[in-house]
Design goal:
The chain is α+β, with helices and mostly antiparallel strands and 787 residues long. It has six domains: 1-25; 32-131, Beta-Lactamase, CATH 3.30.450; 138-259, 2-Layer Sandwich (Beta-Lactamase); 265-388, 2-Layer Sandwich (Beta-Lactamase), CATH 3.30.450; 442-643, Histidine kinase-like ATPase, C-terminal domain (Heat Shock Protein 90, 2-Layer Sandwich), CATH 3.30.565; 655-782, Response regulator (Rossmann fold, 3-Layer(aba) Sandwich). The protein is 42% helix and 24% strand. The chain is built from 19 helices and 27 strands. The strands form six sheets. The chain has a five-stranded antiparallel sheet, with helices on both faces. Strands 7-6-10-9-8 form a five-stranded antiparallel sheet, with helices on both faces. Strands 12-11-15-14-13 form a five-stranded antiparallel sheet, sandwiched between helices. Strand 3 (95-101) and strand 4 (106-116) form a beta hairpin. The radius of gyration is 60 Å and the shape is rod-shaped.
Length: 787
Amino acid sequence: MVDEKNMLKKIAGLEEQILQAEARLHSFMDGLPFVAWVKDREGRFVYVNEKYLDFIGKKDVKELIGKTDHDIFPKAEADKYKAEEEQVIQTKEILSYNVRYEDEDLWYTTIKMPVVDARGNVIGTAGIHRDITERVVNRSKYEFESNLLQSLLDNIPDKIYFKDTRSRFIRVNKAKALEVGYENPDDLIGKTDADFISPEETKPRLEDEQRIFQTGEPLINKIERVINSKGEERWVSTTKCPIRDKNGKITGLVGISRDITETKRALIELEREKEFLQLLMDHIQHTIYYKDEECRFIKISKAQAKMLGLEKPEDAIGKTDFDFFNKEHAIAAYNDEKEIMRTGIPVIDKVEKLIDGEGNVKWVSATKFPIRDKITGRVIGTVGMSVDITEKMLYEEKLREAKEKAEESDRLKTAFLSNMSHEIRTPMNGIIGFSNLLRDPNLTEEERNEFLNHIQSCGNQLLSLIDDIIDVSKIESGQVKIQIAETHINEVFNDLVKISQGIKETEGKGHLQVISKPSLPDDRAVIYTDPFRFRQLLTNLIGNAIKFTNEGSVEFGYHLLETGYLKFYVKDTGIGIPKDKQDIIFERFGQVMDSNNISTLTMTRKGTGLGLAISANMVRFLGGDIWVESEVGKGSTFYFTLPYKPVSEYPSKDQISLSSLTVAGRKILLAEKEDALFTYFKELTKDLNLKILWVKDGMDAVYSARINPDVEMVLIDSKMSGMSGFEAAAEIKKIKPELPVIMQLSYSSTNQKEKCFQAGCDGCYAKPLLIQELYEIFKTWLLKEKK
């Protein structure tokens, strides 16, 4: 009885435990957020939770306990469930699948599992039916977005990749895979750069990535050199950024590498072009500049910088023409450039006058073009180039002057020949006429002598005319020879007083006074010049004064000037010369003509009108100048200067021998505008066998010095056409600082000498050049030892 009671008590305890377990199971299953059920081996429901009741539309669990699916669902559906549960019982494996309810567009997942006892025997099945619509939708979205991302990644030419914190690839696009020789991007997963490239290339990349992981700072647009799977060198611009989780912790990085090989090559080519352009701008002689829309300099050439007076081209950046040129030029240039930018039409070969940084007047041929934006085509500035045409303009000016001078000379020659015809016929008619009268046998002795005197006078007049014409011919052909020798001025003056008496008698003006006024004692009035030409010069001027003076006097004399020159004068009280005619009387074939081209000075006076032209040339040959001061009706004063070179300051000519100088074959550049002085120099040096390069223009002197490397010395006159001797000497010294340049001065004043040496000359001398001076010049500079 006791055992039975104990047994009943245990059974009661077990039943209580079972009830409690069932209660806990019911409570657990009812608390589940999804449908759940339990069946026995025959498929009868043992338990269902409330969610199951709601799912199939039942209210009481009693309606289901002990029943099967065939009691609830259509046969086909129930057979399906029965077959699934038999599979679970037989295999003892969990069965899981998803179900879509299309009418409501819902997704459920069904899981069925075996229920076993303590011995492991299958005693039934349990199942759950869970709504996974949201998860399916989210997964679908994720898969779509993932596929979309992968599609984008695989079609982007840039290399894109994701790495973990150990620099292992966790995702890459196709471009990145192909770069390292893989078709499938998934083949790179788990690998690092070290699996594809050399350690030398890997190291800096790993260092960059570790820095990103440690600092969180991205790497932006780093230029890297890579070798692709084909062995080709490529250049990429790489950006790497950290990836963070929701807590901000860095979990990896994303990298983008853009192939910039073509850009890099274009940049290299652009850099080469820039270097070439810079080389061109640094060495081309033309000025080149670029300006922005506001006409500010962006870039200029070295030649442009020099022209602007700048040390460096960079000093012009941001400035305008108003900072360098006068207002008039700057405004004109500004308006040109604004018009170019407005219309897009270039300016071609526009001639402009400007003043450079050194104050020199320059003429340039300017060409300006618009600069356009390659993308929009909009004009964004101008580029200009200027060619220095100063020499061309000066040459053209010389041509114009020469043409005008030739035309004037032709006109004067025509007038001169017309007048000469008259001048020749007049004495010839006199000779012929009086010769015929002498045939009369009834002439008295007095009449015969008178006719003979007239014939002699006409003959002398004709002879004087012929002499003048011959002198003019020699001057024009450069055949006048200057013979420098000791000249005693006061002795010449004494002779001229006597000569003037004869001239007065010939002209029938014995009543005129001729006055001589020397100003130096005889011992100081001895100079080096050409005595014959000196005498001829004064004779012409005195004779001219007597011819055109009816009453009063003729006075001649000289004074010593502080400039080192002697100033001679011939003063008369004659008819005078109009102001507007005073410039032409010294010209060859130039006379004071009336409206009918008849000489007003020779109509009533004997003479050819050539004397002054001859005198002017003689003065220039001897190194001086000549001019006139006159007033009509009151008389004229003719002045001329000659260098005062006292004999006492120079060694005797006999002591000097140019032939002792060994200079044969040496080339010198002689810049001398007067043909006669060149002839004189050539005659002076004829025994030396020098090579003489002769030019008559300052610009030609500079050009010849530049293009003739074998020129060893330059002799240049201070008064040159086109460019003065001082300017030409300075330019030559800029080109060839070591080349000796000797200046020939019109007069040897302190100011002239200072100007000479400021131009960079090595020496100077006053006209005319003496053999003694030439000896010293050659000895000092042409035979100077070369270092």
